[in-house]
Amino acid sequence: MQRSGAHTAHSLAAGLIFEIARSAGIEVPDRGAKRPIRCPIHGDKHASAFLSEKHIFYCSVCTPDGGWSAKQFAAAVGVAWPGVEATAVPMRRADPIEPAPAFSAQDARLVWSLALARARNDQYAGVDSAVYSYLAQRGILESWELGAFGVLAEGMTVPDSIGWWPRASYRLVAPLYDQRGELVSVQARAITRREPKTLFPKGSRVNGASFASKRALGLLASGLSEHDIVVLGEGLTDFLALVAATPIPVLCAPGTGFVTSSIGPWVHGRTLLLALDNDDAGDAALGPAAEAAYTAGAKRVVKVRWPRGCKDACDVVARHELVGLEAFLSGHMEGCRG
């Protein structure tokens, strides 16, 4: 029996999911039952995802086990739901496919322990020089000293679902934590030009999860911190840059679409410094993120305004080196306290 006031996907206004996408700054073709788009979740540069007139969002990377409903998609891209309920509709496939095995929190802990141990073992420094060269070229190698990333390599005893990652150059990896500070998944970043740039394990659940510095991890676990300001950014490499540039707690959503869901009780009574990308997707996420932060009890929400010509924290490092990012963030924090 359908509850009063509930709507199936078929009862939603025609074209609603397309309008949601456009409201988030996503380019959507004008015609077609299935319209290809650039995935706003993992930030690809090519149209590898699609929206269906049946109000389904599908991406082979982000939703490998089925599509998202229009409401789920709206939440992911930070667009306010227009006030009707949507029911998730499973993807229909022409040929039955065995679902990918779920990537569990236990799998994530195993992968992270192996990857971090390899990054901390000097005997692999030469073999893994490509990873460190990539980080050095980006100006964020100092994050190594903080144990902020791990290194994947062929031959590691990891779940089969990610065993191919190192061969495809997805070798840089960092852990994702839930609102309680529990490790629930990982994300890998390619160290060569590839699309998509980042990957989640198929079957893992990352909504609401974030990268977290050691101080931020303590905040997630206990709700306590000596710092009254917390930085929230987006993306793995920005996480490494921010962690290396500031001593205050740093959290980063694994993509723009996850920014709002990554905000939780940890923000209560604190100033939130939103260090999102200076682009359409980042701008679209600002309002919903601020609303979520104030709802969770934030004292104040401040947007980071990157220097001219810089899109994000990594751009600041590229133009002004890590010391420039340090000075820039320090100035913002002084402004927050002033």
List keywords for this structure.
338 residues; Dna Topoisomerase Vi A Subunit, Chain: A, domain 2; alpha+beta; disordered N terminus; four-stranded antiparallel sheet; 16% strand; 2 domains; globular; five-stranded mixed sheet; DNA Primase, Chain A
Description:
The chain has 338 residues and is an alpha+beta fold. It has 2 domains: 1-99, DNA Primase, Chain A (Alpha-Beta Complex); 105-337, 3-Layer(aba) Sandwich (Dna Topoisomerase Vi A Subunit, Chain: A, domain 2), CATH 3.40.1360.10. Helix content is 30%, strand content 16%. The protein has a 5-stranded mixed sheet, with helices on both faces. Helix 1 packs parallel to helix 2 (70-77) and helix 6 (236-245) crosses helix 8. The longest helix has 25 residues, at 313-337.
Task: Give the helix/strand layout.
Layout: H1 16-23, E1 34-37, E2 49-52, E3 56-59, E4 68-69, H2 70-77, H3 105-120, H4 129-138, E5 150-151, E6 170-177, E7 183-190, E8 198-199, E9 211-212, H5 214-222, E10 229-234, H6 236-245, E11 250-253, E12 271-275, H7 280-295, E13 300-303, H8 313-337
Parallel strand pairs: 10-11, 10-12, 12-13
Antiparallel strand pairs: 1-2, 2-3, 3-4, 5-6, 6-7, 7-8, 9-11
Helix pairs in contact: 1-2, 6-8
